[in-house]
Amino acid sequence: MARPILTAEQMRAAERQAIASGTPETTLMERAGQALAETVRLHVGPRDVLLLCGPGNNGGDGYVAARHLAAMGYTVKVAAWADPTSDAARWARSQWNGPVEPFASATETPIVIDCLFGTGLSRGLEQSLFQRLMLLVDNALVAIACDLPSGVSSDDGALLSPIGRYDLTVTFGALKPAHRLMPAMASMGRVVLADIGIDAGSAWFEIGAPDLPPLEPAGHKYSRGLVHCLAGQMPGAIALAANAAARSGAGYVRVSTSLPIDGLPSSIVQTGGADLQDERIGCILVGPGLGDVPQVLTLALTAPRPIVIDADAIGLVGEPERLQGHDTILTPHEGEFRKLFGESEGSKAERALEAARRSQSVIVYKGPDTLVASPVGSLAFAPPAPAWLATAGTGDVLSGMIAALRARGLGPFDAACAAVWLHGRAAEVAGSAMIADDLVEAIPLAIAEL
Ligand SMILES: NC(=O)C1=CN([C@@H]2O[C@H](COP(=O)(O)OP(=O)(O)OC[C@H]3O[C@@H](n4cnc5c(N)ncnc54)[C@H](OP(=O)(O)O)[C@@H]3O)[C@@H](O)[C@H]2O)[C@@H](O)CC1
Ligand SMILES: [K+]
To answer: Complex ipTM, two decimals?
Structure first.
């Protein structure tokens, strides 16, 4: 299931809404601190705990968690970097009966819980603070962040000051962009989302397992989706993409190529011609292995069909505005993105949305933190994907999967989201030593699990 992702401001608005509907702020904080303590109990053995509390509500969550952990039988120490400054945090502090030591005297402890700063972080931590925090975090057996590691900018995943490596991050109400964006996401460990009774909706969300179009009993190969791939100078890449399209459930995959391509399954048709006016085409795929052949992209853009533009073809687009009026999905990685859209300012999320708006295309902005942006402002964040996807050919596989799901009838944004999710899942199924060809083989297994 898709899960909403909220900026700090949206989260505060959702909190205000919950308070206006009759849930006091202290109740929300009680739920958050209790969820934090419960998550510790579920994941971590009975070792001594140190909670580090900041001045705001993140610190407030820490005092609540300390009380619950102590009641569960943990030996709990609390160290505060500053006295509470908000009413709710002052209340939480008053409910904690144990001692509170100064942050500077906190010593290494097996379980360290960072409740210094969360969504209210407004600048980097001062040096003495982040150095000591990193020492405590990196020397802990288990390090846990309350909402976010202190130093992370909630809305864009930037590090405002250096952070240590956490094993677990417990967040409340909704995921925040930083939980799914680099560089922050790499240091958060597993992210657990706790329900605290806040109703969170947003045009930004984490992609969940997709609903694929049902296969009609009376369907035939064309109704199940015809993907037409355009080969170029290095046909190996388009072969991989075509294979991935076929294994993603396209009824028919065809490759226009001037050279015979070795090793393609016989079910994938190779043709010398390129009749792109064929109304049965569900999606055209151009780019993998294309080389510097701009005519092929121009030809693809003459066809009034959905199109996936990947790899080399992205660099041949020229002006993003050229794609307006076409039904296009673009799949750039960082370098391809900057080549087409320039060195624009802003977070990855903002740049993805701006690129979608300028090109009136769905943008699959690839990386360890892949985003899918639509021209109308929807933004989907990929769930964490295996690191071993960073290997040659996996991008070609993704573009073939997107083309297949588009040809099968999903809209451009949904096709891209579904393919991104299945691509990550297929990589998990294929295992850490996979090559892109193994990833293709794993696609039907990932689909069969749905
Ligand atoms: N939203 C919700 O629904 C719920 C939210 N909940 C929890 O609340 C958290 C957000 O709380 P929050 O807004 O009080 O902000 P928080 O992160 O504690 O920090 C603010 C304080 O830190 C200060 N400060 C900032 N940067 C600093 C720096 N570099 N160095 C030093 N100081 C710095 C800042 O002061 P100032 O910037 O004014 O100097 C202010 O005093 C959220 O992450 C979650 O854990 C839950 O209780 C349940 C419901
Ligand atoms: K924190």
So the answer is: 0.98
